[in-house]
Amino acid sequence: VAGLGNYGLRGTRHSVGMAVLDWLARQLAVAEGWRADRRCCADVAMAAAHGLELVLLKPRRFMNLNGLSVASAAEIYNFRPEDIYLVHDDLDKALGKVAIKLGGSARGHNGVQSCISALHSNVSSPQWKGINPS
């Protein structure tokens, strides 16, 4: 699970993906487990939930380069693009509104476009197919 944002600009709407990962790490009792992983230029925490092993990732790059960290982490931790979930802001949604999007275009979001480009993929996770988030 990658929380997209601008690492040095915490507390801004554009870095809400990182704030969500901080919240998730607290919920999963791994908030003290964040460590800098120089191999992928990101802060990483390991967690378990519902029988799954999770890698929580906060890139240490500007938003338009987040994909480099996500792709490096995918290689290091042996993830396929469909194993990766991106958490990011969307100016078309009201603050606090959550949506699940399955693949497709970046819709103008530079962080998402960076991930699509670096992973060479815009696929969606098969485990979300058939789920209606509304």
Automatic annotation (TrEMBL):
It comes from the Eukaryota. Transmembrane segments: none annotated. Pfam families: Pept_tRNA_hydro. GO terms for molecular function: peptidyl-tRNA hydrolase activity; tRNA binding. The keyword tRNA-binding applies. Keywords: Hydrolase, RNA-binding, tRNA-binding. SUPFAM superfamilies: Peptidyl-tRNA hydrolase-like (SSF53178). InterPro entries: Pept_tRNA_hydro, Pept_tRNA_hydro_sf. This is PTH hydrolase. The lineage of its organism: Eukaryota, Metazoa, Chordata, Craniata, Vertebrata.
